[in-house]
Every structure is written in C-alpha cells, then in structure tokens.
Design brief:
2 copies of one chain form a homodimer. By secondary structure, chain A is an alpha/beta fold. Chain A has 3 domains: about 5-90, Arc Repressor Mutant, subunit A (Orthogonal Bundle), CATH 1.10.10; about 90-160 and about 265-309, Periplasmic binding protein-like II (D-Maltodextrin-Binding Protein, domain 2), CATH 3.40.190.10; about 165-265, D-Maltodextrin-Binding Protein, domain 2. In chain A, about 40% of the residues lie in helices and about 25% in strands. Chain A has 9 helices and 15 strands. Chain A has a 5-stranded mixed β-sheet. In chain A, α1 packs across α3, α2 crosses α3 (about 30-45) and α5 crosses α9 (about 280-300). The longest helix of chain A has 29 residues, at about 60-90. Chain A is rod-shaped. Chains A and B meet through α1, α3 and α4 of A and α1, α3 and α4 of B. Chain A binds a DNA duplex (30 and 30 nucleotides) through α3.
Chain lengths: ~300, ~300
DNA sequence: AATTACTGTTCCATATATGGCACAATTTTT
DNA sequence: AAAAATTGTGCCATATATGGAACAGTAATT
C-alpha cells in the first residue's frame, strides 16, 4: 500500500457524497483529491466509485473497501487524540532519577505537594547513585550534584548550591589529632563516594585564598552518602559530605566538622533533562515545581546555603 | 492529520526495532523514514521515540499511540485484501440489465450453466425495457437491441443479429385482406414498442432492392414485446416483432407473417459495458460467457439468424 | 586497541506531486 | 429558454518531497 492517506480521503469522499465537498472539508484541492482516488483505484486495479458529473455511486467492492477505510480514519483520529490528551493538561507518568540522599532528604518532602496539585500525574522516582543515561533509562528528569554539566544534548538547571565539608567522629579526632592544615590528614583513614575517574582528591581553599590539593586513598568507597555518614559516625575515618546531611549528627555530637576554615569546592544540585521540542506538560510542571520548591525544601532540611557554607 | 501513512510507518519502525530495519522491510530509504517520523512528532508536538544510535525507546505517549497505528495498518491491509479477494477469481455480484423478452427467452436458458460454472458469482438481473444509464443504475452489463451503439464511453459487443418481421393474426389478415405491398397496410391497426423519438415508421426493403418507408400511428404502444405478441394474437393489429419470438405462435397458427418478401432492418443484440481499466473477473467471465453461449441459446430458442431471416 | 559494521540524522540536487485554471457535462435558477 | 452554478477531470508551471551520499556516534569483532 503506497499511501494510506488515500484510504482516509476515499472515506471522506464517500461520506460527503462528492469530491468537491470532501475537498472543501479536508482543505485540499479537488483536483488533488480526484487524482489521488484515481491513483488508488489504479493501484488496486479496482474501481471504487462510479462517477457522473453530478453524483457518485459506490461499487460493490467500494462498499466493502469503505468499511476498512473508515476504520483507518477512526484509528488515526484515536491516535491523534492520545497525543492531545497528554498535551492539554499535566497528565501521565514522569520518571525522575535522583541520588538516594537527595531523594530521601529533599524530594520526599516536596512530592506530596506536587502530587496533590497535579492529581493526574504519576511520578516514577528512580533512585540511584550511578550516573544515568537519560535516554537509555527512559528518564525525563535527573537530579545530579556536579560542579558543571557538560553534556550539550541536555538542558541543565541549577537548583541549589550544595556545599560539602569534611566530617569525622569526635573519637577519630581524638585518635588522630585535631588537624590544623589539610596535610595533617595525610595519615587519616578516608572514606569517599565512588568516582568513575578513579582519582580521589580534595581541593581545599583557605579563607585567605590559599589552595591545597590533596590526594588520598579511601578505605571505604561506596555510592551512597548515607552509608558514608554512618561509617564516619562509626569512627571509620574522615569524609567529604554535604553539610546539610550532617547537621543533625553534628548537633548530636556524633560528627564534628574537620578543618572548618578550609573550604571544599561547592557542588551544585542540578536538574537535567533532554532537549525536546515537545516537552509534556506533566514533565514541564514537575520541572517548574522543583525550581520553585527545592530551595525551600533545602532550607527546611537544613541544606547549606552560601551563608552557612 | 496530514499523512496517515506516517502512522503505519511508525508502527513498522517500532515493530522492527529500528529505522534501518523498517526501511529495508518497507522498501523505503531510511532517510525518508527518519524524516517522516520526525515530521510526525513535530506535527503532533510529542516525542514518540527516544533514539540512541543503536536502540529505540518508546515514550509513554508513543506506546499508547502505537496501538492505534497498528489498527491503522491492520485496517489498511484488510481494505487491500478486499480488492484482492474479488480479483483473484470470479466472485461477487454482477448486475446485468436486459429487456424482458431477451431475459425470458435467452438469458434464462444460459444462466444455470453460468451459475454452475462460477459458484461464487451472484447475478443480479435487472429486467427493463427502458433505456438504462449503466452508471446511474449501477449496472455492469446491459443487453440492448439496436442497429448501432453510439455511446463512446461504452464498449459494445455485437452478440447476435435480431431480425424482425411483421406479424398479425390470421383473423386480422382475413378482416383487412392479405397485403401484397407495404402501402396495403395503411388502413391496418398497428401496434408498436415505445420509441422515445416518437416517430413510428417501418422501413421496408424488397428482395429486388426496392425501399419503402411507411409512417403509422400505433393503436397500442407498450414497452414489452410479449404484450405486443399477445395483442397481435388477439387480433389487435399488425406489429413488428423479432422473428424468433413468434416462431411458436406461427406454428400454432395464432400468428402469420405478413409481407414476407419485404424485409425490415435487422437489429442487433448488443452487449454494452462501461470502459473500465479494472474489470472484475466476475464481470469479465459473464461477458465471455454471453459471447460464447448466446448464439447457441438463440439457436435453441429459434432466434432468426441470417439464414432464416 | 584498533577495526569493522551498523545506527539515525543531515544535506541538497533531482524527481515527484501539487493545485490553480480551464473545460465539458449537468443541474438549478432566473 | 437562457444563464448561472456546480460537478469531476486534464493540464502544466511550480513547489514539495525524495533518497543517495556523507557523517557522527556506538557496538561488536578482531
């Protein structure tokens, strides 16, 4: 079948009872319609309509043929309807990928509000600490903590600064001595998130502008911040963690901030999504919602902002 | 919806799992396929497929959309199937129009053989003595007795000569006197078929080549030959009738041939059908069957051929 | 590690389809 | 009776879509 559109046009011609009428309804020149139906008949080797200059008569074949053509039209309209449906208001599923820590601390606190505001939207929250390929994982939005997002095929929106600092248990500090300078940490056991680069280092900046880069060999590598925090609280070593994650533990005396005068690079919580012309309303409103409410959620969760970094 | 073919192509792309595969299967360049699907997505404002260079991923919308596209494909195939069905062997209905007399004397005798030979063909025999418009009456084949068929949009096949002669009842001949010359009929009551021209005349040719044209005012005008024959047998006057129609009555002594030395123009039984590229097998075989068996049927029915005209 | 094969997309000269017009045929209106 | 309106089709300059080649990216193979 060369051009299925011809089937739909044929159905319209029959239903309007004339080429001219159907042409007007379809917004197509009647000469085109005439030729296309004639082409269709030639291709099929069968006459569908007998024409006088004034009236059309369906052939027997045409009559049976018509039924299926009408099915084509109905199915095509139903197909189009599907796309209208998800476009007229926020509807359907949105897959969002987020690291565990972010999900547990920030997302969970704002999701109820979002779900209440958009009752026809379902959220599929994929929690993972691994870097995700948005297309392969079929994810609409991903949250990432990075200093910069380099992938040009993605749109990146900066949601929050996410300051990190070094933490260790008081017991560790007692055991290894309170460090005054980054190099004092050289014989400390260290913990770290997994980095695919395989290079583990801290880049310190003092309040006077002095820079020190220090390589270290982590005793524990994992891809979950919470695990790292527990390990640190259990005296396993010193670790770089988001400030907001540790605030409670610091207040409880389970962790202390190490080298508070030296800053580590401020990461940023990014939201990334693929560049797409037709972003669905459901995805759009989640993006907007995250932009609007994530900073507030971070405040409630005690996330470090510049002022307390 | 601009081009419904795109829906079918989309379905094929999904089912093959790749543009290249679908392109090969459809016999379409993959560049065309790629562009058409992209156009479709733009037109709908929705992304149907997420592509990597190696794999395709249906979006949620695409998945729902696909169902209807598959319906389109199935319906289009079903439509095409309808046309194949009636083309692969003689099948379906054939409407044939024929004058009453021809139907009753000739067609009925050969129809059983035809119906037996082609069990999947139905014949719709429209008996009428009025001139039929093949298209408006939706007739595939019409039988007509004319000297020539002038309509160029029709294909005319000559089936038989159909000689006519004048007949009257013996009683009439006794009453008005046996005519020796056409002009002897001038005071006879006359009967005639209905002619739309409104001009009633007999054109005689003698065996010596002499021509005489005689106008007359019919006492009875009808459009059925059988009625005319009965009227003549009932002594209502002289009438021009096909020779074969009257043979039985002549043998029974109910009618006699008048002016046997003077011939009337020999009409011809024609079969006409519209010129169509795609003549269905069912129509084709009926045409062929009539050409093959009508002469024999005429012989059995005693239809006048040249030899007995 | 390097090579090969194959993916989907883009480009652009070329081939194809389009659509305004004219036309013959017919119906409706004047 | 004549004129106006409307039908479906054929024509042809023009606009649109096509499809082969090139390309960048990825997976499988060597």
């Amino acid at each position: 079948m060369k051009d299925i559109t011809n089937l739909a046009w044929f159905a319209h011609v029959v239903e309007h009872g004339s080429f001219s009428g159907a042409a007007r309804a379809l917004g197509v020149p009647k000469s085109t319609l005439s030729r296309r139906i004639a082409d269709l008949e030639d291709e099929l080797g069968v006459r569908l309509l007998n024409r006088t200059t004034r009236k059309l008569y369906l052939t027997d074949v045409g009559r049976e043929f018509l039924v299926h053509c009408q099915t084509v039209v109905a199915a095509a309209e139903a197909a189009e309807q599907v796309t209208h449906f998800v476009q007229e208001k926020p509807r359907g599923k949105v897959r969002i990928s987020s690291p565990y820590a972010i999900s547990q601390s920030l997302l969970v606190s704002i999701m109820p509000g979002f779900l209440a505001r958009y009752p026809d939207v379902q959220i599929d929250l994929v929690m993972t600490n691994k870097p995700v390929n948005l297309i392969e994982e079929q994810v609409d939005i991903a949250l990432r903590v990075r200093s910069t997002i380099e992938d040009s095929s993605l749109i990146a929106r900066e949601l929050l600064p996410s300051a990190s600092a070094l933490f260790a248990s008081p017991e560790c500090v007692t055991r290894y001595g309170l460090p005054e300078h980054p190099l004092d940490l050289s014989d400390w056991p260290t913990l770290s998130m997994h980095y695919s680069s395989g290079r583990y280092q801290w880049s310190f900046t003092s309040q006077h502008g002095e820079s020190v880069t220090m390589n270290y060999q982590p005793r524990l590598i994992t891809d979950d911040l919470w695990v790292l925090r527990e390990a640190a609280a259990e005296h396993q070593g010193v670790v770089s963690l988001p400030v907001y994650l540790c605030r409670d533990y610091v207040e409880q005396g389970r962790l202390v901030r190490v080298l508070p005068e030296w800053r580590l690079p401020v990461g940023k919580l990014h939201m990334v999504y693929p560049y797409r012309r037709g972003l669905l309303p459901a995805v759009r409103v989640l993006i907007d919602y995250l932009i609007e409410f994530m900073p507030g959620a971070a405040g409630l969760a005690g996330l470090a902002t510049d002022s307390d970094a």
